[in-house]
Amino acid sequence: MSRIESVFQELKRSGRKALVPYVTAGYPHPSVTLPLMHAMVEAGADVIELGVPFSDPMADGPVIQRAGELALKHGVGLVHVLDMVAQFRKHNAATPIVLMGYANPVEAMGRDAFASAAATAGVDGVIVVDYPPEECAEFASLLRSKSLDLIFLLAPTSTDERVAQVASLASGYIYYVSLKGITGASNLDLTDVAANIKRIRSKTNLPVGVGFGIRDGVTARAICDLADAAIIGTRIIQEIDVAGPGEIPTRIGGFLKGIRAAMDGVTP
Questions:
Q1: 160 is catalytic
Q2: What are the structural domain ranges in the chain?
Q3: Which residue among 2, 130, 228, 254 is buried most deeply as judged by most CB within 10 Å?
Q4: CB 63 within 8 A of CB 36
Q5: Is 49 an active-site residue?
Q6: Which one from 60, 124, 149, 228 is the annotated catalytic residue?
Q7: What is the mean pLDDT of residues 6-25?
Q8: Is the peptide bond prior to 28 cis by the omega test (within 30 degrees of 0)?
Q9: In this structure, are residues 197 and 226 in contact, taking their beta carbons and an 8 Å threshold?
């Protein structure tokens, strides 16, 4: 059983939902990433999505794009991100880490080499935004052979055929993009989210996490009444942006503690 599957099963047994924060590796500086990851776990994160900086992130809004650009200026690439995961694993063997990024760095490294390096580093899952499911059967099999989950994005515009394709290949969880557009958008339509999660669940028993548009405890709680996980990215980058020097892990930890409390229905 993978770490991701184990976490979701334990949460289900306890009647709780997964808190999945996203952060761009190397932003605002490579030295911040590890302390930030540990702070997020201490604050209640169940899975961490770690963004791999890329020069042309088509699905990311301006906030995450800017974070990736600065990380690239610091020289952070896929090899450095894998090293960060390996360093994280020296102190945390339990929290699943999912790499989120684009095909180019994976292809540049080579799929076989990437799968082996990711498994060795302690990665648990991979989201490659621009790998279509029609072309992923071999890659999904390769990752499974290394005990890695391949996680796909589905959107409000995904056809029933696309949902079925993803359901046949995906493992770990499915990432439902709650909005049409890019990360950081707003105007969350819960009725639409509920209908599409029902449609996805008719094709798979995998957990469904929802991202894009979750910005606070209220929206996270509302999503958790419908889905298995709340995924938060842009708002975390924005909180990093307003943190003072040396305050980032503490500030993000405090922010996530509030989200965790709202998701669990308790007063922080």
A1: no
A2: 3-257
A3: 228
A4: no
A5: yes
A6: 60
A7: 97
A8: yes
A9: yes
